[in-house]
Design a protein that fits this description.
mainly beta, four-stranded mixed β-sheet, 38 strands
């Protein structure tokens, strides 16, 4: 319902790097809490998603603290002519979706064009309360029976790609993407109470979230002395977002607007030397950040307001180089070595006289390295052990932000922040033989110099007036170190051609240096799927499970929204779902499904929104 924050091994928001078609999405205002920016990527356009952990993340750099999440959108690589129309309805939100994708080609040109629109109504929660908390999630202000008000929204997405094949050695790819939405309300704010126990906010919503991406890539496969192939990419992104809120009884709507322009240049090379393979590259990223704000009345008359980020404008320049070397040591042993050097220059300008500086300038340098040893014990079993570093430069959101989450504390700028680092150890065991395959991974991550929010003072005082209220002053500081340990398991059993069983399970535990629970650590979670494909029919029956997240396991700084859980934490939950697909003919496919068959009430960890109740899904796809 307009939200959703990805979490990989306890890394979330600005500590998890998102990359779409080779261009990093993370920008200078990605925050550390929970982040909904991934919703600007439409699932209908996606060809593959890759979770990249281990030394491979060195190639992606800033923000890949424990790995990177790579999205690859569909392209007309096969140079075909086709037309796909997909329509879908979901009962839990009365959602209607329409998706269109076409591929067409000429002698040297191949095109992909698509658009997607969806209208989503208010989300209905489950009615079966196995957890025993009768009133949990029943917000008195914004609930109509099981319908959660202020969760409706609309979104539209567009994509166009042109592949120009000059010859068998050279090609150009032009990639255009655009996403926009309606206003998206903050449900977890609209359910807040004031001191009298009444609804606190009249309005609290994000304005339309707009993301435009344009990239041009040149691929060359003509072997030279220093490379066998290379890829040069120019990218531009224009990101626009805003926040708007007004408390009940107030006369003014607070409006804060953010615009980020991002320019990328990436140059990647590959070269084989005897049995070894080397990949290396260089890159530059430049970002401009413009932050404005005002207060408006019901006549649209505007007045002064604090901006969220420096009101004089900000810029960030990032320069990097990396290399990776893959060497076969023995017949069954391979080693992968890598390194990356990075320099980050940040400038932020302030006009606001409240702060004791008019300009922030920082320069940070980082060097990370990695190594992986792969040993193939037999035809079926491979063991990989690795060490890899990760880092994240403090961005404008860390250094220059002014905001309040709870109307009690206000975060103010700090010009002394340094990069935070992660040292990762990983052991993976892979088994694959005929009908059975599984993978088990053990990992350990040590965070150092981590950025944490602490109480502080400004100009000798520990409080200031912000958004009409006196609040305690906080700053981000490099004071925290932490450890994350985890294990993940994936298995698949295929007893016959038409039937298989898949399962996965993830468990991790994170603690800070003073032995307090770490934020962003989800509870034990698992899934089990039974799949059957028979002629024109495909069935999937699956179960999802999340264990308890006890109150004492929540972080003490409030990042994971304990106030949205029960007095004991977030209860265990599971849901059962069934999906069915019928291929009517070569051109037409019908799909239906029931998610959360038992209509169970639950909340996912750290969410203020109750999960979807029983949800009937109907879809029809036409492929020509």
């Amino acid at each position: 319902s307009g939200g959703g924050s990805l979490n990989f091994r306890g890394m979330e928001a600005n500590r998890l790097l998102l990359v779409i078609d080779g261009i990093p999405l993370n920008n200078a205002i990605y925050r550390s809490g929970h982040l909904q920016s991934v919703t600007t990527i439409n699932p209908f356009f996606i060809r593959t998603i890759s979770l990249l952990s281990g030394p491979g993340s060195v190639a992606y750099g800033n923000g890949a603290m424990g790995g990177a999440l790579l999205f690859h959108t569909k392209s007309n690589i096969q140079k075909e002519n086709s037309l796909l129309i997909h329509q879908q309805y979901e009962s839990a939100t009365n959602a209607i979706m329409f998706n269109f994708l076409s591929n067409y080609t000429t002698k040297k040109l191949a095109f992909t064009s698509g658009f997607s629109i969806k209208s989503v109504g208010n989300l209905k929660m489950g009615n079966t309360r196995l957890h025993g908390y009768d009133n949990w999630g029943k917000e008195s202000f914004i609930l109509n029976e099981n319908e959660q008000l202020y969760t409706a929204y609309e979104q539209a997405d567009f994509i166009h790609k042109t592949l120009f094949q000059i010859n068998d050695k050279n090609s150009f790819l032009f990639n255009s993407q655009y996403s926009t939405s309606s206003n998206v309300f903050r449900f977890d704010k609209m359910n807040d109470e004031n001191t009298e126990g009444n609804q606190k906010y009249d309005k609290w919503y994000y304005g339309p979230q707009n993301r435009f991406l344009q990239s041009i890539s040149w691929s060359n496969k003509k072997s030279r002395t220093i490379y066998d192939s290379f890829k040069a990419t120019l990218g531009y992104q224009d990101v626009y977002e805003s926040r708007h809120h007004k408390k009940i009884g107030e006369n003014f709507l607070s409006n804060r607007y953010e615009n980020v322009n991002i320019y990328d240049f990436l140059l990647d090379f590959n070269k084989d030397i005897l049995d070894a393979a080397i990949a290396y590259g260089i890159g530059v990223r430049h970002q401009n950040i413009n932050s404005t704000a005002n207060l408006s009345d019901n006549k649209n008359t505007t007045f002064y307001n604090f901006t969220r980020y420096p009101d004089g404008g900000s810029s960030v320049n990032n320069y990097f180089a990396y290399s990776q070397l893959n060497i076969p040591l023995l017949k069954k042993v391979q080693i992968l070595l890598g390194g990356r050097i990075n320099q980050n220059n940040l400038t932020a300008n302030f006009k606001n006289p409240t702060f004791n500086f008019l300009k922030i300038k920082t320069t940070n340098k980082s060097f990370i390295k990695s190594a992986l040893l792969s040993y193939k014990i037999s035809r079926s079993i491979t063991i990989k052990t690795s060490y890899y570093g990760g880092f994240r430069n403090p961005n404008i959101d860390d250094i220059g932000k002014v905001f309040s989450k709870n109307d009690k504390d206000v975060v103010v700028p700090n010009n002394k922040l340094e990069p935070e680092y992660a040292d990762n150890l990983e052991l993976a065991i892979n088994y694959q033989h005929q009908k059975l395959q599984f993978q088990i991974q053990f990992y350990n991550t040590k965070l150092s110099n981590a950025i944490s929010r602490e109480y502080s003072s400004l100009n000798g005082v520990d409080s200031m007036l912000y958004d009409g209220e006196m609040m305690r002053i906080q700053m981000n500081k490099n004071i925290e170190s932490a450890t994350i340990n985890g294990i993940s398991f994936f298995g698949k059993y295929t007893p016959s051609r038409i039937f298989n069983i898949r399962t996965d399970c993830n468990y991790l535990k994170g603690t800070s240096s003073n032995n307090n629970p770490l934020a962003h650590i989800p509870p034990l979670n698992a899934s089990l799927t039974f799949s059957c494909i028979f002629k024109k029919h495909e069935f999937d029956f699956y179960a999802k499970y999340n264990a308890w997240k006890k109150e004492e396991d929540y972080d003490i700084s409030g990042v994971d929204n304990l106030e949205e859980a029960t007095i004991d934490g977030t209860p265990m939950w599971y849901i059962l779902s069934l999906h069915y697909v019928y291929k009517i003919d070569d051109f037409l496919t019908f799909g239906c499904g029931i998610e959360n068959i038992m209509d169970i009430h639950y909340k996912t960890f750290a969410s203020g929104l109750s999960g979807s109740g029983r949800n009937l899904i109907l879809s029809l796809s036409s492929n020509f």
